[in-house]
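Design a sequence for this backbone.
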């Protein structure tokens, strides 16, 4: 099987239900989710198998779910069979609470960084936010699975906490934003 098909040479791509322009907001949205998935793989490559086994397992599940999210967004027309569901959002909230319990209380905004792993997870956070913004635009203009938007919103929160946990486990403090006052109680 050849990896290239030449079907996209004219600037269109195939989706479930037809062909659309490669710069369509739908393609931008699921393409950004694909970019996020690649950066998750990069972050996982930085993880120690023992001290981050729980994060590796959770991130692996997230990578599969991001494929599901991309598939949901790549469906146009009728007879849609969506895979991203509300239970996935609830599970992300459980994971956020679990990892947040490892972190010291947050008093100020923090700057992205600390350990190399935390920096990678912050990159995942901002890509998740960009994907969410694109999905917001998509859902405003076209019909699609709105659970993907909720999932991405919660996922960016997950990456924020995962970055903090990475710093805690590396015994590197978060870098606080010092030009503002205490914002969290």
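Sequence:
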């Amino acid at each position: 099987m050849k990896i290239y098909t030449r079907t996209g040479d004219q600037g269109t791509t195939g989706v479930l239900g037809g062909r659309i322009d490669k710069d369509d907001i739908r393609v931008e949205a699921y393409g950004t989710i694909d970019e996020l998935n690649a950066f998750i793989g990069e972050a996982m490559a930085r993880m120690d198998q023992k001290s981050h086994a729980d994060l590796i397992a959770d991130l692996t599940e997230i990578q599969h779910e991001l494929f599901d999210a991309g598939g949901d967004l790549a469906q146009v027309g009728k007879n849609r069979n969506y895979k991203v569901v509300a239970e996935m959002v609830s599970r992300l909230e459980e994971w956020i609470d679990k990892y947040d319990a490892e972190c010291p209380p947050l008093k100020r905004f923090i700057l992205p960084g600390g350990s190399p792993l935390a920096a990678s997870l912050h990159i995942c956070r901002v890509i998740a936010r960009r994907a969410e913004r694109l999905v917001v635009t998509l859902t405003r203009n076209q019909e699609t699975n709105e659970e993907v938007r909720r999932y991405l919103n919660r996922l960016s929160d997950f990456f924020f906490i995962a970055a903090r946990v990475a710093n805690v486990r590396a015994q590197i403090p978060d870098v606080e934003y010092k030009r503002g006052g205490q914002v969290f109680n």
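Residues 14-176 form a domain with the Hypothetical Protein Ta1238; Chain: A; fold (CATH 1.20.1200.10).
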